[in-house]
Design brief:
Elements (H helix, E strand, L loop, with lengths): L1 H4 L18 H7 L1 H9 L15 H11 L2 H24 L5 H19 L22 E10 L4 E9 L5 E10 L4 H17 L6 E5 L2 H8 L7 H14 L4 E5 L6 H9 L6 E4 L4 H11 L1
Parallel strand pairs: 1-4, 4-5
Antiparallel strand pairs: 1-2, 2-3, 3-6
Helix pairs in contact: 2-3, 3-5, 3-6, 5-6, 6-8, 7-9, 10-11
Amino acid sequence: MRLRKHHVSCAHNCPSCEDPHEDDWHVFFGCSEAISSGRAAGLYNISPRLHSFEDAKSVIIDICCKEDSHVAGRVAVTIEGLWRNRNDWLWNNEKEDATKLGWIALHKWQEWFYAQHIRPSDGNNRELVHWTPPPSGSFKCNVDAGFNRQLGTSKRGWCLRDDHGDFVVAGTAWDGGSLSILETEALALKEAIQGVSSLHIDHVLFESDSQVVVYSLRSKLSGNSEFNLIISSIKLLLLDFPNFKIKFVKRQANLVAHTLAKAVNSWSRRMLLEEIPLCISSYLINERS
């Protein structure tokens, strides 16, 4: 609508939902994709004020004035993601699923928030992040994923250890294709659960450094995207294994799985490793001590 007011010839309709009236209010608050993204980002509390204002600028100013930084920050990141997604669809014929867009916004905001609360100068209070063994009698499985941009492959790796930190088994896989990083992270976790469940062991804590995947498993939101389908299949798997738990950890505590995921292109497409691979042996020794 703004472009047409400046005599730029363009369509009236929204490229995302085909609504016949695309203005800034519609893009950020009225479009069905904006509503789904906001819900996924946990922005339920901004809905009532949408009935009190008639333009997007007034809503945004009101949110910034009356909400805390947690809400205002998520709104800002979600709006930026919606605008980028809208333009990617219009110009490049590429876009993310609306629900996943909201989860990405939440993930970006959390990463930024955590980064602001790190105090490098305060060495005495700095949190040491490292791998720790699970409680006695249980197991821990670390999971990670990655990409090889040159080869166009997605890579996954997982490693199971006991309560002494001793290696039990590991698994790796790689595939060609165009999965997103979130889809690959979710697939890595699903394959790890399937691999561990075949060993007939109980009480396993799975650790992933993808906050979005872990949050999605705890959320009741659903959708038809590839990412949502993988998340739904993981939830179904976990119903059969009530003593399997999922936890988010930082990358520093997930180095073994991260290293496995980086190394998989030099191996067969899918492997179950019953002996310790050389690439992770030093990490296993250091983290056990």
